[in-house]
Design goal:
Elements lengths: L1 H52 L4 H9 L3 H28 L9 H17 L2 H14 L4 H26 L13 H20 L1 H9 L5 H14 L4 H25 L6 H16 L9 H11 L5 H18 L1 H9 L18 H7 L1
Length: 361
């Protein structure tokens, strides 16, 4: 009997050991994959900068740097910082439509989390920055589903409005709208994306039941239903207005950085540059758009008489402006306490109230 029990125990131990080994192998493979992806993006960024550097006259770059008007550059940084509470207002409005605003998800808390996430979005891939937003929101008492849903919807609103701004910018009377001969192709692509988004939103009530009937698309169905409710709900005008204001302020940032370099950019040109610089950032093949953005800006402005050195400085200045403006998020991360709500095993909501904690003690 003892031998039998011993065999069972040994078998259980071996099974557990094998399970742990498989999990360790899976984690190692996942870590290796992420490292390889990061290395590939780093290689693309380096290759882009190498390509641009071959067109740069260092003496022109030095002269352009010394001629930089830091007053306009400082103004641009302040405008980007101003966007942080606007993003927070948009995000909290989405949470209110999802009925996911708990007692701890105040305006101040959401603004703090937004600032922290923007900082992480500068030092990590953008997906990691969005993950940080969801993680901190869960620490404030939101459940994971609503946290992830709100982040996805907020991100989608920003990208969708970027496409809309880009479509309109390419219709403006600007010399930059030619896009090296690709204007019509880009207009068609943006128009198709906007039409697809509008149709998906309009027919979401009919699509959701179909998706909900399949096991692997239920989360997509819930996301589609939540998106339809948020973007067509009472808060939708505020959400869209905040999104439009944020993009308009980014165009102001581009215009201000042009003034900092002595480039008299019309608003239409600034809008086209805004579309290009943020549009390439969405393409996930480089580190936060670095390198890819510089190639696009240098190529675009070179056709309009701007020296490659000045165009490179303009693009790098834009990236540095975003990075500097994200530093309040680093300070918030260090000083603002976002302690998690303790969970109770078996409690329906998964949240322990102070009263229950005191009763147990």
């Amino acid at each position: 009997m003892l031998s039998k029990h011993s065999d069972i125990a040994n078998g259980t131990s071996v099974s557990a050991s094998l399970a742990r080994d498989r999990e360790a192998v899976r984690l190692r493979k996942g870590g290796a994959g992420k490292l390889a992806l990061f290395a590939a993006k780093l290689l693309v960024t380096g290759a882009c900068f190498w390509y641009v550097s071959r067109q740069i006259d260092l003496s022109q770059l030095r002269s352009a740097l010394f001629a930089l008007d830091f007053r306009w550059a400082t103004f641009a940084v302040l405008v980007v910082v101003l966007q942080i509470p606007l993003v927070a207002v948009r995000w909290r409005s989405i949470l209110e439509e999802l009925a996911a605003c708990g007692a701890r998800i105040t305006r101040a808390a959401i603004t703090a989390v937004t600032a922290i996430a923007i900082f992480f979005g500068q030092v990590l891939p953008s997906v990691a920055g969005e993950g940080v937003r969801a993680w901190f929101l869960v620490r404030l008492g939101c459940d994971w589903r609503n946290a992830l849903t709100s982040v996805v919807i907020d991100r989608s609103v920003g990208v969708g409005l970027l496409v809309a701004f880009g479509f309109l910018a390419l219709l403006l009377p600007s010399g930059l709208t030619a896009l090296g001969g690709y204007r019509n192709l880009v207009l068609f692509a943006y128009g198709a994306l906007l039409l697809a988004g509008a149709l998906a939103l309009a027919f979401a009530p009919a699509i959701v039941p179909v998706l909900a009937g399949w096991r692997y698309s239920r989360w997509v169905a819930m996301l589609a239903a939540d998106t339809h409710r948020v973007l067509l709900g009472p808060k939708s005008p505020l959400i869209l207005a905040m999104g439009c204001l944020i993009h308009a302020l980014t165009i102001l940032v581009v215009w201000s950085l042009g003034r900092a370099q002595g480039l008299a950019l019309p608003v239409a040109d600034a809008a086209v540059l805004f579309t290009v610089m943020l549009g390439v950032t969405i393409v996930p093949i480089s580190i936060s758009g670095w390198g890819l953005r510089e190639v696009a800006v240098v190529s675009l402005l070179a056709d309009h008489g701007v020296a490659p050195a000045n165009a490179l400085l303009f693009s790098v200045e834009f990236g540095i402006t975003l990075a500097i403006a994200s530093l309040p998020g680093a300070l918030t991360w260090l000083l603002y306490p976002i302690s998690p709500i303790r969970s109770v095993r078996g409690h329906p909501s998964g949240i322990e109230s102070t009263k229950m904690a005191g009763a147990r003690e």
